[in-house]
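User: quick one, fold this
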Amino acid sequence: MNLQAPAMTPYFQNDVLAKRPYIRIEWCLKAIENPVSKDTQPDGRIRHWIYVEELGKYLRVVTLPDGITLHNAFPDRRFAP
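Assistant:
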């Protein structure tokens, strides 16, 4: 088990978690470690998707180009695997 806190952008820490307090860091880490789908945006950021039973939806987690630093996370209503 990794006890080290994940790297996060200030936007993720100050805005995403404040606007979406139901988002769990462990979901984000699972999305990065074992995504059902993964895509690189034109700006280099990486999108990772995972299905979250508790939400009943897919969660999109966006990292910086390093693939580790959390930048955004939200339920993705339009994602279809």
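User: anything notable?
Assistant: The helical segments are 10-19, 25-33.
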